[in-house]
Amino acid sequence: MRSIVIVLSLFLVLSCVTVVHAVAGEKSSGKALREHYDLQEGKRLYEQYCRFCHGDQGKGKAYKVTPPPADLTSPAVQQKSDAELTQTIHDGERGTAMGSWKWELSEKDKQNVLLYIRRLAR
């Protein structure tokens, strides 16, 4: 009788572990899918609003102005915090051609563009 209880207890524990692992896998795949969607939306927004000046690859050589657009793949840009880059997207950069996008882009849009800018450097 005791051995049956032990076997059933082990079976129950292993079943719970399997269920927990499956649920965790679903959450991580959902997160990966959401990040993929956000990245694609960030790319679309980048192409619509940013590519004209920063170029397809984010190197900042697409449009000749003084000072030139930032190279978004450079360490100087990539080392900035998410908050700093989001603020620049929101308010623009004084003394440059980088204008404000606060009236065009929602907070979620700015986060998606930021996700894409981070990906450009890879």
Short characterization:
This protein is an all-alpha fold. It has helices at 2-49, 51-54, 75-78, 82-91, 107-120.
Report on the architecture of this protein.
The chain has one domain: Cytochrome c-like domain (Cytochrome Bc1 Complex, Chain D, domain 2). It has 122 residues and is an all-alpha fold. The protein has helices spanning 2-49, 51-54, 75-78, 82-91, 107-120. It has five helices and no strands. Helix 1 crosses helix 5. The longest helix has 48 residues, at 2-49.
Strand and helix map with partners:
Elements lengths: L1 H48 L1 H4 L20 H4 L3 H10 L15 H14 L2
Helix pairs in contact: 1-5
Query: How much of the polypeptide forms β-strand, as a percent range?
Result: under 5%
Principal-axes shape call: elongated
Q: Please state the second-level CATH architecture.
A: Orthogonal Bundle
Number of strands: 0
CATH class category name? Mainly Alpha
Please describe the biggest sheet, giving its number of strands, its sense, and whether it closes into a barrel.
Answer: none
Helix content: 55-70%
What number of domains?
1
Poorly predicted residue ranges: none
Oligomer: single chain
In sequence order, what are the helices and strands, one letter per element? HHHHH
What brief labels describe this structure?
122 residues; 0% strand; single chain; 5 helices; Cytochrome Bc1 Complex, Chain D, domain 2
